[in-house]
Amino acid sequence: MLKIKEIPKQERPRERFLTYPIETIQTHELIAIILRTGSRSESVIDLAKRLLYDHASLKDLSQQPISDLTKIKGIGKSKAIQLLAAFELGIRLETEDFKTDKKLLSPKDIFHFLKNQLEFKMQEHFIVLYLNTKGGLIKKKTLFIGSLNQSLVHPREIFKHAVLTSSASLILVHNHPSGDPTPSTNDIDITKLIKKNADMMNIKLLDHVIIGRNRFVSFKEKGLL
Question: Are residues 107 and 156 in the same domain?
Fold first, then answer.
């Protein structure tokens, strides 16, 4: 097993990154660059390969909590933080293009906008998209994390941000970790409660989209709004 110093300089991940087009750099090499160092018994390249081989996919790896990552030989808290920070930047980059001049015109647009952020979460995440009078996105806010119920989802928190951003309308989005986006009784009750509050404040609730594993359900399309 070669240590990184024993690998010819031109074949080391950082040097290859500088020399060749970025799309030609292999995934394990990119991970090695993020991790920077291996351990006494394993090079950073071998550590990166093992991380990939031991997980079903990059998405699977990105969803591991720090507590699980640090159980992996060679991965301490610093390396775990570096990895998860890199994954989070990738997610934010994908959603950054949706400025106020961009429109979320359909449930499918909303699904593709938040799919990577929500699809493999192990807990339910409740997100509100705040829109201006032209339907442009003003703000994306994760408000609640955990099993959704009326004691957790507070309308006052949702509409506080609506007032602060002068939003004309909003869209609710959350995920089902089971992968099945079928609305639960709680989902329907919460949506009715938020719709009632939105009507009172003259703010339009345009949709509630539930994201599952590579599929979604729109309350608007199902006639539930």
Answer: yes
Q: What is the mean pLDDT of each run of 10 residues along the chain (225 residues)?
A: 64 85 88 90 90 86 90 93 90 61 82 88 91 90 80 84 93 94 93 95 96 95 93
Domain membership flag for residue 88:
yes
For residue 117, the enclosing domain spans 97-218
Query: Of 64, 94, 124, which one is at a domain's C-terminal end?
Result: 94
48-54 long-range contacts (CB < 8 A, ≥24 apart) are: 50/74, 51/75, 52/27, 52/28
74 with 106, same domain? Answer: no
Dihedral of alpha carbons 10, 12, 18, 24, sign: positive
CA 128 – CA 169 distance, rounded (Å): 10
Q: How many domains does the chain have?
A: 2
Q: What is the model's pLDDT at position 93?
A: 72
Burial class (CB in 10 A: 0-12, 13-18, 19+), 97: exposed
Nearest-CA neighbor of 104 among 169, 159, 162? Answer: 169
What is the structure's pLDDT at 102? 60
Q: Measured between alpha carbons, how far is residue 216 from residues 110, 183, 210 in Å? A: 10, 10, 5
pTM: 0.64
Residue 42 DSSP symbol: B
